[in-house]
Design brief:
Shape: globular
Strand order of the largest sheet: 1-2-3-4-5-6-7-8
Bound molecules: glyceraldehyde-3-phosphate
Largest sheet: 8 strands, parallel, barrel
Radius of gyration: 17 Å
Structural class: alpha/beta
Number of strands: 8
Distance between the termini: 17 Å
Oligomer: single chain
Low-confidence stretches: none
Helix content: 25-40%
C-alpha cells in the first residue's frame, strides 16, 4: 500500500508575528511537489495558529503542538482538542520528547491524549523515541515499543495517526541518525504494528523520522524504505525546509 510522504515542520516555541509571516511567505512562494505526492503540515505555537491558518496556502495544513487530555474546563493554561477543532485546525502533535522530559508526560498520559484527540476528529502526529542512555544500553526497541503500545492500547483506528520516531539524542543536536539507524527502528516499528495491531495498519501507517533533519541529509533518509517522511524542528524555520519537502520525490525515483 502506498503511503503518502509526510513532512511536518515543528516550530516549537519560536517566532514573532513578523517572523511567522516571513516563513509563511517563503512557504507560499515555494515550488514543491503536489499534494498527491507530499502532505505538508506546519506547527506554529498556539498563539499563531489562526494567523498561519489564514495566510498559509491551501495545499499545506497546520498542526497544534499539544492539546489537553480530555474535554476542556477548569484547566488553566491548557488548550482543548475541541478548541482546535472549532478553529479548523486539523492536526496536533502529541507526545513530543520535550514534553515527555520537561513536563513529565508519561506513556499512559500520551496514550490518553492521542485517544481523546482522535475521538474529537483531530489527526495526530504521535512522537516516540529513546534517549542516548537507552540506546547505549540496547533498549531502543523496548522503549519505542512501550511508547507505541501505550497508544495502541487506547485506540481502535489508526487512519488518522502518523507515528514520528524521534531519537532524543538526535533532536536539536545536529547529530542525525544514520539512514541505516533510522531504517532499522522504522522497520522494527512496522513489524511491531504488524504483530500487535494488524498487517493492514502496519502497511498503511506512516512512520516519519525526526532529529536534526536538514536540507543536506534529507534525501538519503527519505530513500529508506520504511521512512515515510519527516518531523523537522530547527530546519523548518529556514529556507531549507523547502528542500526537505522536495525530498518526497526520492520515493518516486
Ligand atoms: O519535532 C521535531 C524534532 O524535535 C526535531 O527537531 P530538530 O529538527 O531541531 O532536531
Amino acid at each position: 500500500m502506498a503511503r503518502k510522504f509526510f513532512v511536518g515542520g515543528n516550530w516549537k516555541c519560536n517566532g514573532t508575528t513578523e517572523e511567522v509571516k516571513k516563513i509563511v511567505t517563503i512557504l507560499n512562494e515555494a515550488e514543491v511537489p503536489s499534494e498527491d505526492v507530499v502532505e505538508v503540515v506546519v506547527s506554529p505555537p498556539f498563539v499563531f495558529l489562526p494567523l498561519v491558518k489564514n495566510l498559509l496556502r491551501s495545499d499545506f495544513h497546520v498542526a497544534a503542538q499539544n492539546c489537553w487530555v480530555r474535554k476542556g474546563g477548569a484547566f488553566t493554561g491548557e488548550v482543548s482538542a475541541e478548541m482546535l477543532v472549532n478553529l479548523g485546525i486539523p492536526w496536533v502533535i502529541l507526545g513530543h520528547s520535550e514534553r515527555r522530559a520537561l513536563l513529565n508526560e508519561s506513556n499512559d498520559f500520551v496514550g490518553d491524549k492521542v485517544a481523546y484527540a482522535l475521538s474529537q476528529g483531530l489527526k495526530v502526529i504521535a512522537c516516540i523515541g529513546e534517549t542516548l542512555e537507552q540506546r547505549e544500553s540496547g533498549s531502543t526497541m523496548a522503549v519505542v515499543a512501550a511508547q507505541t503500545k501505550a497508544i495502541a492500547d487506547k485506540i481502535f483506528n489508526w487512519d488518522n495517526i502518523v507515528l514520528a520516531y524521534e531519537p532524543v539524542w538526535a533532536i536539536g543536536t545536529g547529530k542525525v541518525a544514520t539512514p541505516a539507524q533510522a531504517q532499522e527502528v522504522h522497520f522494527e516499528l512496522r513489524k511491531w504494528l504488524k504483530d500487535n495491531v494488524s498487517a493492514e495498519v502496519a502497511a498503511s501507517t506512516r512512520i516519519i523520522y525526526g532529529g536534526s533533519v536538514n536540507g543536506a541529509n534529507c534525501k538519503e533518509l527519505a530513500a529508506q524504505p520504511d521512512v515515510d517522511g519527516f518531523l523537522v524542528g530547527g530546519a523548518s524555520l529556514k529556507l531549507e525546509f523547502v528542500d526537505i519537502i522536495k525530498s518526497a520525490t526520492v520515493k518516486k525515483n
